[in-house]
């Protein structure tokens, strides 16, 4: 009797517990679904993007000419250019006091006249001596002296004329002219200064040409060569240019090579200012790029990752380490780690882990089904 009662109690407890256990499993499943993060997914998209090699460097003059004094001891009495002045080749920049130079020139002219007169006398004496040769009227020694005097007189005239030319050159150098078209970038000349030969007066950016002296690592030189197009973004708009020269040497400071880029500002744009550190890029054409939304890429521990839907179980995701490349607008190029057929979590990856359960948004789920068809 006791054994029968115990059996009846066990059957009752089993009947009571079974529905509760089944209910717990359903509740757990429902709870897991509720905890799943809703995400949107998209397939990587192949786009034709430009290939750009970024670089930075200083803007500098293509060629900066130094205009210096070529005379010594002269005072500046007029300065006709300043920093920023646009000048043409041959424009007067500085006038020195020319009184002394003018006086020296006049003196040398008088010396030339005097020496030419002496030459006329010496030529006449020499001609007479030559005419009397053999007559016995003049000794051989006297004849020789007349001929030597003629030669010395000719040399004196040549020397006087050379001194006259030098005096004229000194007078000419009391005026300093622009050696080329361009813009004055520096001025040292001041009114009243007494200069010495070689003193710098101005610096001139020849032809107002400014270039970008970009620095590149040696490994990128295979992509950049003479004629390669370059672009420098500026507040006033993009300034285009092209490579005119790749330096044959490498910097001992940073191991980089300087690439000289001639700039061609658009009509109406001001010439870029020299001395500025500017960033730009070299345009190497266009290539296809496998891209994903920028929000799909997460950065963890210094590496880039994306999450993709698992093929077998589309309610879970896998984390994949990727190598990223170019960026444009709101998309990033994936160089490796993702296939074109993968379904990438477009947003919400920062809250996911490998194997996380997700709920795909309706629009994304519809797109996946359409792709499956």
Strand ordering within the main sheet: 2-11-14-13-12-15
CATH class of the largest domain: Mainly Beta
User: What gap, in angstroms, lies between the N and C termini?
Assistant: 68 Å
> Would you tell me the overall average pLDDT?
85
Q: Number of helical segments?
A: 4
Give a verbal description of the structure.
The protein is an alpha+beta fold and 373 residues long. The chain folds into four domains: 102 residues, conserved putative lor/sdh protein from methanococcus maripaludis s2 fold (Beta Barrel), CATH 2.40.420; 87 residues, Efflux pump adaptor protein, beta barrel domain (Elongation Factor Tu (Ef-tu), domain 3, Beta Barrel); 70 residues, OB fold (Dihydrolipoamide Acetyltransferase, E2P) (Beta Barrel), CATH 2.40.50; 69 residues, Helix Hairpins (Orthogonal Bundle). It contains four helices and 21 strands. The strands form four sheets. The chain has a six-stranded antiparallel β-barrel. The protein has a four-stranded antiparallel sheet with strand order 3-10-8-5, with no helix packed on it. Helix 2 packs antiparallel against helix 3. The longest helix has 34 residues. The protein is rod-shaped. The two termini are 68 Å apart. About 8% of the residues have low confidence.
